[in-house]
Amino acid sequence: MSSLEIPLKWVKGRSHSFPDSSDRLLIYVLIDVVACHNTLNLELAKPHIYGS
Fold this sequence. Notes:
The chain is mostly helical. It is 87% helix and 0% strand. It has one domain.
């Protein structure tokens, strides 16, 4: 979860300029992107793990 710490701090710091619903949506999108990115990295790494 360490990869989320900095973006979440940034989102909280800027939350005064966003309504609550947009702030929540931004956090959900951020988590989605990080989760997809991690899944993609795992998929790309599989052939290398099994190849060695």
